[in-house]
Write a structure and sequence with these properties.
The chain is built from 13 helices and 20 strands. A hairpin with a 5-residue loop joins strand 1 and strand 2. The chain is α/β, with parallel strands linked by helices. The protein starts with a strand and ends with a strand. The chain is globular and about 60 Å long. The strands form five sheets. Strands 4, 5, 8, 9, 10, 11, 12, 13, 15 and 16 form a ten-stranded mixed β-sheet that branches. The mean pLDDT is about 95. The structure holds 2-keto-3-deoxygluconate (KDG) and magnesium ion (MG). Magnesium ion binds next to loops. The site of magnesium ion (MG) has 5 residues, from loops.
């Protein structure tokens, strides 16, 4: 079954998305997500200039061989641009295979291992009362597990606090990338953060009790010792996970953190291959794999890394912010439904404009997600609607310390 067309669609309904469309000779269409927040056009160019023409006349059924061809024939391996491009091809081919078979992708991956996926939502506040309101709102929406982020006294803006509205009026945590031609500068103070966060979790436990699974994202900003201290300080509050406590390129750092604390660790949203997880899984330095189908080369490698992690009782916690498009989200929800070692899925609904462009089957009911039973991934793009939202330059913010030094954001 030959591929006869490969097209890249860049659209910006609220935020930018890059989508690959593959068409086969018998009229099947498959969709893949290649969105890389703040660097979207690099991936669009990689696909348009170097990949699309290689796909013409290939057999759409050969998913694994096409993945290996794109990975190995480039010679230059890994990296978010390459791997988001390969991810889009992989997802689109799984979408086509499902449509040809008349089955949702999770059935092709072994069938459902559970009824639906437990999710967590993002609660946040500039202060404790605002945070409590946000937690209540999320519980009312059905979420059973809650990520907790707050402003830090003395720090003007921090990742993950929704009430710090952007210039566009969008919720900040739903889309941290700000539209405009330059990235926005924010500030950071680790000592203030380490003092404040345990007090926040103490207040949340006092108000909401011991049952709710609570999560927190450190967003790569601590040294190993600082992360070890935070993990220890948070132990009384029984976190479901502490995420990205250190920049995970330095994997030895996780040994220091692991030795100091029993707070579970989740890492890997910026990873893009199974090799990035090799040491962390083999040495059992993490508890949750935070990869996203979109930045990790697609469905095929995500399934492989989870099968490897299963030997060590390490579970999934796939990255699911709104910069993963509905296609990328569907792809990992199909994987999460099929694998035995699913943990939890990050979830925040996409905007109305995004849902107008991406017509999705995904169902969020009482805190649980299901990809639906349409053949393939269950997402179709309305190309006319997409064309009405042209690309707009946007950048993620960055951090500087009080003395002007660049710091991880
Ligand atoms: O584009 C950057 C976001 O994907 C990231 O900041 C979101 O850390 C994030 C999370 O855990 O959702
Ligand atoms: Mg994160």
């Amino acid at each position: 079954m030959k591929i006869i067309a490969a097209d890249v669609i860049v659209t910006s309904p609220t935020r930018n998305f890059v989508t690959l469309k593959l068409t086969t000779e018998d009229g099947y269409v498959g969709w893949g997500d290649a969105t890389l927040n703040g660097r979207e056009l690099a991936v669009a160019a990689y696909l348009r200039e170097h990949v699309c023409q290689l796909l013409i006349d290939r057999d759409a059924h050969r998913i694994e061989d096409t993945w290996q061809f794109l990975y190995r024939s480039a010679y230059w391996r890994r990296g978010p641009v390459t791997m988001a491009s390969i991810a889009a091809v992989d997802m689109a081919l799984w979408d086509i295979k499902g449509k040809v078979a008349g089955l949702p992708v999770y059935q092709l991956l072994g069938g459902a291992s559970r009824n639906a996926l437990r999710t967590y939502g993002h609660a946040s506040g500039r202060d404790i009362p605002e945070l409590f309101d946000s937690i209540r709102e999320h519980l009312d929406l059905g979420y059973k597990s809650i990520r907790v982020q707050t402003s830090i006294p003395g720090v003007k803006a921090v990742y993950g606090v929704a009430a710090q509205r952007q210039a566009t009026g969008e919720r900040y945590d739903y889309e941290p990338a700000g539209r405009g031609v330059t990235p926005k500068e924010e500030d950071w103070d680790t000592r203030a953060y380490l003092r404040h966060v345990p007090r926040v979790f103490e207040a949340v436990r006092n108000e909401f009790g011991p049952e709710i699974p609570l999560l927190h994202d450190g967003h790569h900003r601590m040294t190993p010792l600082e992360a070890a201290r935070l993990g220890k300080d948070l132990e009384p509050y029984d976190l479901y996970w502490l995420e990205d406590c250190t920049p995970a390129e330095n994997q030895d750092a996780l040994r220091t953190v692991r030795a100091a604390t029993t707070t579970p660790l989740a890492i890997g949203e910026v990873f893009n291959t199974v090799w990035d997880f090799q040491t962390l899984i083999r040495e059992q330095l993490i508890d949750y794999v935070r990869a996203a189908s979109t930045h990790f080369g697609g469905i095929s490698p995500l399934k492989k890394v989870m099968d490897y992690a299963a030997q060590y009782q390490i579970k999934s916690g796939f990255h699911g912010p709104t910069d993963i498009s509905p296609v990328g989200m569907a792809a990992q929800v199909h994987v999460g439904l099929a694998i035995h070692n699913f943990g939890i899925q990050e979830y925040m609904p996409h905007s109305g404009a995004t849902n107008e462009v991406f017509q999705q089957q995904i169902r969020f009911v009482d805190g649980y997600l299901h990809p639906g039973d349409a053949p393939g991934l269950g997402v179709e793009i309305d190309e006319a609607a997409a064309a009405a939202y042209p690309y707009q330059q946007a950048y993620l913010p960055f951090n500087r310390l009080a003395d002007g030094t660049m710091h991880d954001w």
